[in-house]
Amino acid sequence: MTETLPPPAALPPLPPPPQLPPLPPLPMTESGPRAFAAVHALHAAVEEAAAAAGLEPLLLELVRLRCSQLNGCAYCVGLHTASAREAGERDERLAELVVWRESGLFTPRERAALALAEAVTRLTDRAEGVRARRAALGVLSESETAFVAWAATVVNTYNRIAVTSRPVAAESL
User: Fold this and answer.
1) Using one digit for the tens of pLDDT, what is the confidence trace for 109-119?
2) pLDDT at residue 169, rounded to an integer
3) What distance in Å separates the CA atoms of residue 40 and residue 43, rounded to the nearest whole number?
4) In sequence order, which residues have a C-beta less than 8 Å from that of residue 172 and are 6 or more positions away?
5) Considering only CA atoms, which of 160, 120, 116 is closest in space to residue 140?
6) Largest CA distance in the chain
7) By the 8 A CB rule, do 121 and 158 touch?
8) How many beta carbons lie within 10 A of that of residue 55, not counting itself?
9) How crowded is the C-beta side of 143, counted as CA atoms within 13 Å?
């Protein structure tokens, strides 16, 4: 004889999550003006050395824009998109930068710089970083390769400051 069990009792609904207040901006630049000035000085030093190494300003803007896209920094994406346009970049290439690997619009030099910039930004796959560095050294000089990495490093610093210091809406928590 099979015993039938009564249906399980309905579970009570879960309580709503607690309402957390929004987080105001984190005053990183205001709290550390000397530190932020040092980031600006590093940026200026990298710009000067990258130009001396022969890197084109537009290539550096593409590197900065791609890193900013990966980091989700809306402010920096807007800034570097505008700077790239001012330097003569076409809207078609700007639109395809997020899919540069599949796009036929980028030169081998740009592709190598973008791959290296992505590897510097992500840092999670060391093999990717080694492959990107080897590829970059195939089309860029050693000095150019180093300053693409420096440019990515500096913009990643700016991205982290901007993303970390912006306010956070309550519903994002």
Assistant:
1) 999 999 999 99
2) 74
3) 5
4) none
5) 116
6) 90
7) no
8) 25
9) 11
> Which tokens hold the place of 26?
């984190």
Q: Please report the pLDDT score of residue 170 as a whole number.
A: 66
CA 137, 141, 142, 148 torsion-angle sign: negative
Q: What whole-number distance in Å separates Cα of residue 155 and Cα of residue 117?
A: 10
Residue linked to tokens 């089309």:
139
Rounded mean pLDDT, 10-27 = 83
Which residues lie across from 168 on neighbouring strands?
A: 23
The C-alpha atoms of residue 84 and residue 76 are separated, in whole angstroms, by 12
Least confident of 5-19, 27-41, 92-106, 154-168: 5-19
- What tokens appear for 45 in the block? 């030093």
Q: What is the helix, strand, coil percentage profile of the chain, to 5? A: 70, 0, 30
Token reading at 113: 């710089």
| Residue that the structure tokens 């970083």 belong to | 129
Give the DSSP H/E element, type plus range, for residue 71: helix 57-71
| The pair of three-digit structure tokens given for residue 74, joined into one six-digit string | 């809306």
Cα angle 101, 68, 139 (rounded to 5 degrees) comes to: 45
Q: What is the CA radius of gyration of the chain?
A: 23
